[in-house]
Design brief:
alpha+beta, Lipocalin, 13 helices, 24 strands, about 30% strand
């Protein structure tokens, strides 16, 4: 494993590049190694208006990373004998009406997102409402509203419990209510007293709990295009109490390292046992296949954590989260005792979720730019984007990137057309694509010659790249 001093300059430069690419005002990173915090610093601004720097102590909304804290609370209550993860949800929430008596939805199913209920969109409703982007006119401001909204989705159930993975934000809202019923404490009070305080995460709090009193809180931003220019728009954090258990926690990467240390120390932090090691292991156990294949093998979901099974031969446990205007990512490698916490104040930035694996790879002595295929894909896609012309400029097309897909766009006097370029190989090991159009699959291929010149062949046409797109 490489020493931190050998790799810091390499990943710090890359972080700056990714922040510029994804329009991230401020970002913070911390690294845990061998049970201790080994690195923590901020990049950019926690507040653009006041030109305040991001630091290792800056608080950000961490979104769905909160789910592991909610799952930890459930496991603590199980350890105390106050509930079992195999209990039906209805045992504690009689108001919950979804599921069959002979095959009920259990706490286990909710923890592992295997209830069979697809996501119902309450998080989108709340975020859009807070940001003033859209209003769906769905009543969702109280327990009664929320349980009515959830129960109204009986016909949305798409699988028997335990059979299929559907990431369900509303499920973790149910878990928050169960924690309140069983503990006789408000959800946020339970998390503070039983989890945050023992791990000395004393500045961590739930969003909208007067965070403005803290001296180092990130201003949340969403990026909008105004008159052709991308502009960061400051906002409030779009979370209220109904969403706390699913994604309402704010924390700093420094305090999150205490959490990672606990997770890699069999549930113990500075001599205080937070959870029995066997129950903690149950949280990381691959309870259900998510159906997602990453560049690091198959992805599984446990209880509030997901697992990538093969990151350079090692299991990586982690979770990410976003509330549209801030985001976070936590990952650790149990058998190497290293972990990374990342957070930033742009919730739509892909870079948040690239940085942790990059840093882990560097720490493991790998070169992520060469050995993590997503970076090679990024390089190739960037190379192909641009303006293309046929012989004497008679036909002109543009190759554009939208999200993770390339599109070819043509504009002429008669029509404007845009077609997706579907790669023959997911990792772009060759540069052959097809264009689905009009019920047929038209071949398309990029050819790069020894001098770096690029030609695009689409069916009968040959186009030469004449200009890149900045």
């Amino acid at each position: 494993m490489s020493s931190l001093g050998e790799v810091a300059e390499r990943f710090e430069g890359l972080i700056g590049d990714l922040m510029a690419r994804d329009h991230v005002p401020g970002l913070s990173l911390a690294i845990v190694k061998d049970g201790k915090i080994a690195y923590a610093r901020g990049f950019g601004a926690r507040s653009l208006k006041d030109s305040l720097p991001a630091t290792g102590q800056t608080l950000y909304g961490i979104g769905s990373c909160t789910k592991s804290f909610t799952a930890l609370a459930i496991m603590q209550l199980a350890e105390q004998g106050k509930l079992s993860v195999h209990d039906p949800v209805k045992k504690y929430l009689s108001e919950f009406k979804i599921g069959k008596e002979e095959n009920p939805i259990t706490i286990h199913h909710i923890l592992s997102h295997s209830s069979g209920i697809p996501d119902l969109g309450s998080a989108d409703i709340e975020i859009d409402r807070f940001l003033g982007i859209d209003e769906k006119w769905v009543p969702l401001t109280s327990f009664e509203d929320a349980i009515l909204f959830i129960n109204g989705a009986k016909d949305e159930v798409a699988a028997e419990p335990g059979k299929k993975f559907f990431y369900l934000n509303e499920g973790y809202t149910l878990l928050g209510w169960i924690i309140e019923k069983v503990s006789n404490m408000r959800y946020e009070d339970y998390i503070k007293e039983k989890i945050l305080k023992p791990m000395k995460m004393n500045r961590s709090a739930f969003l909208n709990e007067k965070l403005e009193k803290d001296a180092d809180v990130a201003t949340p931003y969403f990026v909008q295009r105004k008159e052709g220019t991308l502009m960061p728009i400051s906002s409030a954090y779009p979370i209220d109490r109904l969403a706390y258990a699913a994604g309402g926690l704010a924390s700093s990467v420094t305090e999150l390292t205490n959490y990672l240390i606990t997770c890699m120390s069999e549930g113990i932090f500075e001599g205080a046992r937070i959870l029995d090691s066997a129950l903690l292991a149950e949280m990381y156990k691959p309870h259900i296949d998510t159906g997602v294949s990453t560049f690091f093998g198959k992805r599984w979901y446990g209880y509030g954590w997901r697992t990538d099974e093969n990151f350079f031969g090692h299991k990586v446990v982690g979770h990410s989260g976003s509330v549209a205007v801030s985001s976070a990512d936590l990952r650790f490698v149990p058998d190497l005792n290293i972990g990374v916490a990342v957070a930033c104040n742009n919730g739509m930035a892909e870079s948040t979720y690239l940085i942790a694996p990059v840093v882990l790879a560097f720490l493991m002595g790998k070169d992520p730019m060469k050995e993590i295929s997503i970076f090679e894909i990024e390089r190739k896609m960037g190379m192909l984007v641009g303006e293309y012309e046929s012989y004497k400029g008679i036909l002109k097309v543009s190759v554009m990137r939208k999200g993770g897909i390339l599109f070819v766009e043509s504009k002429d006097k008669l029509a404007e057309q845009s077609f997706a370029l579907i790669p023959e190989n997911d990792r772009l090991e060759n540069l052959r694509f097809c264009i689905p159009a009009g019920g047929i699959r038209m071949p398309a291929e990029f050819v790069v010659d020894s001098s770096g010149k690029i030609d695009l062949y689409i069916e009968r046409n040959r186009f030469h790249k004449v200009k890149g797109l900045g």
